[in-house]
Amino acid sequence: NPQNQTMEFQAEVKQLLNIVIHSLYTDREIFLRELISNAADALEKLRYQRVAGENVDNEELSLEIGIELNEEQNSLSIIDTGIGMTREELIQNLGTIAHSGSKAFIKYLSEGDKKDFNLIGQFGVGFYSAFMVAEKVTVESQSYLPGATGCTWRSEGAGSYTIEDNAELTRGTRITLKLKEDAQQFSKAETIKRIIKQYSGFVPFPILVQGEKINTVQAIWTKNKNEVSEEDYNEFYKYVANAYDEPLLKLHFSADAPININALLFVPKTNLEGFGFGRMEPGVSLYCRKVLIQQQSKEILPDWLRFVKGVVDSEELPLNISRETMQDSALISKLRRVLTGRFLKFLNEQAKNSPEKYNEFWETFGAYLKEGLATDFTHRNELVKLLRFESSKSEQLASLQDYLDRMKEDQQQIYYFNGPNRETIEASPYMEIFKDKDLEVLYTREAADDYILSQLGEFEGKKIVSVDQSDLDIEGFADRDQAQSLSAEETNDLITWLKDALGDKVTEVKESKRLADSPAIVLNPDHLSSSIQRMMQLMNK
Ligand code: ADP
Ligand code: MG
C-alpha cells in the first residue's frame, strides 16, 4: 500500500534520537515547552496566512493549544489548530534535518561536560525532545491547504517511522505521547500546569489543559501601552522578576528602526546584591515572536545592567539561534546597543520628569551605572548625565549639569571633594577657600566616584578637579586680603624650617593663599585625589 510507508530516519536524526532516548536528563520537562512552542509557531504561521488573505481549511477553528491527559493510559496529547503538515512536510520536518541543527547539537552534547539539554530548541531540533519522555510518538496532522490529505506519523524513535493517510482530521496537529513508565507524572494535570506556567506563560495563544484555560498572562510587551493596565504590568513584573512587590520603574517601548524591538523592562525596588545575595544573574529574557529564545540572556544587555528585569522580543532574530552564535552575532550587538541606549534615555527622562523617583533609583542602583562608566565606553555620554552627587550648594542631589547651571560666569572648573560624610567634608580646611569664594563643591563618598571623575577629566569643556590637588588653580585667588600675611623673608624662613622638620615625609613645602583659618594643609602632588591614593595603597598591599 503506497499510502502506508515505513521510512528510515536520516542518519543524523538516528544519532540524535539515540542520545535523547538513552540519556538520563533531569530537565526532561522541557519537552513540553518545545512541543508547545512548535504548536505556537504553527498557529502563528496560520495567523499569517489568514492575514495575508490565503484560503485556509477549517477557517472557523479558533487558534488555540489544547492538552489532553489520560492517566490510565499514561499518555498526553498536544493539539493545535495551526498550519499542520502534509505527508511531504511530515517526512521533511520530522525525519530529516533541513539545517545542521542535529549535528551541531550532538557535537555540543559530546563536548566537555556541557550537558544542558535545555538548549535543544535553540538548535532547531526541539521536536525530538518528545522521545525523552515518550516510548511512542504519534503525530496526526492536517495541513491548512484546502484539499490536502491528513496523515498519521508514528515512531518509537528506534531508526524508523511510519506514515499513513488519515481522512478523519481537521486542520492542525495532534501529537500524542505514550509516556515511558518513569514519566508518569506528565500525564497529571498539576504537573503539566506547573510546567506551562514556568515555561510557556506568555505564549500568545490560549493553552487549555483538559479544557481549562490556564495561561492568563499574555504577551503584554507586544501590546499597545494604552491596552495594558497598571495591574497587568505589575502582575507581569512579579512573574518575570519572581518578585512579590511592585517595580520601581517601568519602560515599555517598541521600535521598528534601526531594528525591530518590543521591550518591557523593569527596575525593582530593591537591590539584591546590596543584601548580600552575591552577584545577580541578568534578568532580561529574549523572545522572538513571543516564543522564548533565551531565558535571562547574558547577551541582550551589558553586565552592568544586570539589575534590570523583563522581556525583549525581536522578530528579526532567527528562532533557532544558539548561544554560541548569539555571542558574536552582529544582530545581537545591535540589539544590545539600541536597547541600552533607549534604557539610559529613559532614565534621563525619569530624572527630568520625576526627579524624586530618579533619586530613589540612584540611591539603590547608582553603583551599577558607575560600574558601567568605569568599564564600558560605548554609553559614556548618556551615563555621565545620570551621575548624581551631594553638593555644598544644595540639599538635593546634583548632576554635573546642575553644577554647570549654578556656576559663576567666569568659573572654569568643576570642584569635588571626597569624604565620609557632609559634616566631615564641610569642617575640612580644604573647603575654606571654596566657602570663602562661594564656589560649589560636589561631595563624593566612594573611591569609585573619584575614579570616574578623574577618568572623565572634564564635562562640557570644564575641567573636573579634586580640591586636594596641589596645583589647584582657583579663580580669583590672588585678591584675598593679604594685610596680615607674613613678609616674604618670614615666609621663606618658615618654609626652610618646615622642610627640615618634615624631611622626606613631603616632596615640597609651598606658600599658599587658599587657607582662611587653618595654618597649613597637606596636598597631593599628583593629579590623584586622596581617596584614589588610598584605594591604590590598598590594591598594592
Ligand atoms: P524548529 O521548531 O526549531 O524548526 P523542531 O524540531 O521543534 O525544530 O520542529 C521541526 C519542524 O517540524 C518545525 O520547523 C515545523 O516545520 C514542524 N512542526 C513541528 N511541530 C509542528 C506542529 N505542531 N505543527 C506544524 N508543524 C510542526
Ligand atoms: Mg521547535
From TrEMBL:
<keyword id="KW-0143">Chaperone</keyword>
<dbReference type="GO" id="GO:0016887">
    <property type="term" value="F:ATP hydrolysis activity"/>
</dbReference>
<feature type="binding site">
    <location>
        <begin position="100"/>
        <end position="101"/>
    </location>
    <ligand>
        <name>ATP</name>
    </ligand>
</feature>
<keyword id="KW-0346">Stress response</keyword>
<comment type="similarity">
    <text>Belongs to the heat shock protein 90 family.</text>
</comment>
<keyword id="KW-0963">Cytoplasm</keyword>
<feature type="binding site">
    <location>
        <position position="34"/>
    </location>
    <ligand>
        <name>ATP</name>
    </ligand>
</feature>
<feature type="binding site">
    <location>
        <position position="80"/>
    </location>
    <ligand>
        <name>ATP</name>
    </ligand>
</feature>
<feature type="region of interest" description="A; substrate-binding">
    <location>
        <begin position="1"/>
        <end position="323"/>
    </location>
</feature>
<keyword id="KW-0067">ATP-binding</keyword>
<feature type="binding site">
    <location>
        <position position="38"/>
    </location>
    <ligand>
        <name>ATP</name>
    </ligand>
</feature>
<dbReference type="Pfam" id="PF00183">
    <property type="entry name" value="HSP90"/>
</dbReference>
<dbReference type="InterPro" id="IPR020568">
    <property type="entry name" value="Ribosomal_Su5_D2-typ_SF"/>
</dbReference>
<feature type="binding site">
    <location>
        <position position="323"/>
    </location>
    <ligand>
        <name>ATP</name>
    </ligand>
</feature>
<feature type="binding site">
    <location>
        <position position="93"/>
    </location>
    <ligand>
        <name>ATP</name>
    </ligand>
</feature>
<dbReference type="InterPro" id="IPR003594">
    <property type="entry name" value="HATPase_dom"/>
</dbReference>
<dbReference type="Pfam" id="PF13589">
    <property type="entry name" value="HATPase_c_3"/>
</dbReference>
<dbReference type="InterPro" id="IPR001404">
    <property type="entry name" value="Hsp90_fam"/>
</dbReference>
<comment type="subunit">
    <text>Homodimer.</text>
</comment>
<feature type="domain" description="Histidine kinase/HSP90-like ATPase">
    <location>
        <begin position="27"/>
        <end position="183"/>
    </location>
</feature>
<keyword id="KW-0547">Nucleotide-binding</keyword>
<dbReference type="GO" id="GO:0005737">
    <property type="term" value="C:cytoplasm"/>
</dbReference>
<protein>
    <recommendedName>
        <fullName>Chaperone protein HtpG</fullName>
    </recommendedName>
</protein>
<dbReference type="InterPro" id="IPR036890">
    <property type="entry name" value="HATPase_C_sf"/>
</dbReference>
<dbReference type="InterPro" id="IPR019805">
    <property type="entry name" value="Heat_shock_protein_90_CS"/>
</dbReference>
<dbReference type="GO" id="GO:0051082">
    <property type="term" value="F:unfolded protein binding"/>
</dbReference>
<feature type="binding site">
    <location>
        <position position="173"/>
    </location>
    <ligand>
        <name>ATP</name>
    </ligand>
</feature>
<dbReference type="GO" id="GO:0140662">
    <property type="term" value="F:ATP-dependent protein folding chaperone"/>
</dbReference>
<feature type="binding site">
    <location>
        <begin position="122"/>
        <end position="127"/>
    </location>
    <ligand>
        <name>ATP</name>
    </ligand>
</feature>
<dbReference type="GO" id="GO:0005524">
    <property type="term" value="F:ATP binding"/>
</dbReference>
<comment type="function">
    <text>Molecular chaperone. Has ATPase activity.</text>
</comment>
<feature type="binding site">
    <location>
        <position position="85"/>
    </location>
    <ligand>
        <name>ATP</name>
    </ligand>
</feature>
<dbReference type="InterPro" id="IPR020575">
    <property type="entry name" value="Hsp90_N"/>
</dbReference>
<dbReference type="InterPro" id="IPR037196">
    <property type="entry name" value="HSP90_C"/>
</dbReference>
